[in-house]
């Protein structure tokens, strides 16, 4: 089989397309013939050895797949060859076949495209856990979403609206503003590109405050970090919840006096650990996502598609911070 391999730490240009033996399923596993693999920011980090998990090399990046079961191992019940599935696997998805623990599988409806299926779980499951469990978002509250045109940002807009919140999307361009509005944002602001000096940070704070209103934001969803974090935190409301989702703009340093003055919470969001520690709660969230997907209230937006041989280009696209929605590698 073909696989895109990381043999040494480095950027997307270091990935190599190679021939490997076909995998065999272990006990409790299936082999999935991968049809699509969504690309996410952890794929940028994992090949550079900057992610919290460091697989032994060589390995294939790509943690979110859709495909067809090709073989079934001992002890697997409820799954057969030919079933269409999606799964979050951490890494290994940029390959024609991959062994997957059966417990990680979710069934992909027949009417759904493989690329859309691959783009669903990681972004939406992270976001529903963030908003429901960590942010305790409820109807009538105000949600400020940074990076609102990326995969998780659009998911936050859609899920925020499904929860009855007023949603403000914050983006860096007119094209991204249009995508945020299309996803259902009640209002959208276009912020300048960082880094910011003191005057720039102060201006961004005022921009956030004007958008969320005098009561401040009840929940702030931040998958961006960097110089955007402190101005956003300054726009939070009394007893608000600031959700730490990711840091493509850098890891910020927040002045903790703001948390005292606003009596607010800064909440980390680590969906993978949550899913492992509380699989029943995660399964309930995923079931809810499928209900919302079926009802048309959420929909992954796949805006760029690449073949397996160009998987490095797919990962490189995320480093530009210009991508709207999701990037997917399709495998023939």
**Global morphology:** globular
Number of helices: 11
Mean pLDDT score: 96
Structural class estimated from helices and strands: alpha/beta
| Percent of sequence in beta strands | 25-35%
Total strands: the figure is 15
Q: What is the N-to-C succession of helices and strands?
A: EEEHEEEEHHEHEHEHEHEHEHHEHE
Please mark out the parts with pLDDT under 50 across 5 or more consecutive residues, or reply none: none
Helical fraction equals 25-40%
Q: What's the multimeric state?
A: single chain
Radius of gyration equals 20 Å
Explain what the structure shows:
Strands 3, 4, 5, 6, 7, 14 and 15 form a 7-stranded mixed sheet that branches. A 6-stranded parallel sheet has the order 10-9-8-11-12-13, sandwiched between helices. Helix 5 (174-182) links the parallel strand 9 and strand 10. It is built from 11 helices and 15 strands. It has helices at 41-46, 114-118, 121-134, 151-162, 174-182, 198-212, 229-233, 257-262, 271-277, 279-294, 311-319, and strands at residues 2-5, 16-19, 29-39, 64-72, 84-88, 97-101, 105-107, 142-146, 166-171, 187-190, 217-222, 236-244, 265-268, 302-307, 326-330. The mean pLDDT is 96. With 332 residues, it is α/β, with parallel strands linked by helices. The protein is globular and about 60 Å long.
């Amino acid at each position: 089989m073909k696989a895109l391999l990381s043999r040494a730490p480095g950027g997307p240009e270091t990935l190599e397309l190679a021939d490997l033996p076909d995998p065999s399923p272990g006990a409790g596993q299936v082999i999935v013939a991968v049809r699509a693999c969504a690309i996410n920011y952890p794929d940028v980090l994992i090949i550079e050895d900057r992610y919290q998990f460091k697989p032994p090399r060589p390995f294939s990046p790509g943690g979110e797949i859709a495909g067809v079961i090709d073989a079934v191992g001992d002890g697997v019940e409820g799954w057969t060859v030919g079933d269409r599935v999606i799964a979050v696997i951490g890494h290994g998805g940029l390959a024609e076949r991959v062994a997957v623990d059966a417990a990680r599988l979710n069934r992909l409806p027949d009417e759904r495209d493989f690329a859309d299926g691959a783009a669903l779980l990681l972004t939406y499951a992270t976001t529903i856990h963030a908003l429901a469990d960590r942010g305790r978002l409820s109807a009538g509250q105000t949600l400020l979403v940074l990076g609102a045109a990326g995969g998780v940002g659009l998911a936050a807009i859609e899920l925020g609206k499904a929860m009855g919140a007023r949603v403000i999307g914050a983006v860096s361009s007119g094209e991204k503003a249009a995508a945020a509005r299309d996803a259902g944002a009640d209002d959208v602001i276009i912020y300048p590109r960082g880094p910011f000096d003191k005057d720039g940070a102060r201006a961004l704070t005022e921009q956030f405050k004007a958008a969320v209103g005098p009561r401040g934001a009840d929940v702030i969803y931040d998958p961006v970090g960097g110089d955007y974090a402190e101005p956003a935190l300054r726009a939070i409301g009394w007893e608000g919840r600031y959700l730490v989702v990711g840091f493509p703009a850098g890891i910020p340093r927040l002045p903790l006096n703001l948390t005292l003055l606003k009596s607010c919470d800064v909440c980390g969001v680590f969906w993978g650990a949550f899913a492992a520690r509380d699989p029943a709660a995660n399964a309930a969230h995923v079931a809810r996502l499928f209900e919302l997907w079926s009802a048309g209230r959420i929909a992954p937006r796949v805006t760029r598609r690449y073949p397996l041989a160009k998987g490095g280009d797919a990962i490189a696209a995320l480093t530009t911070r210009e991508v709207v929605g999701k990037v997917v590698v399709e495998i023939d």
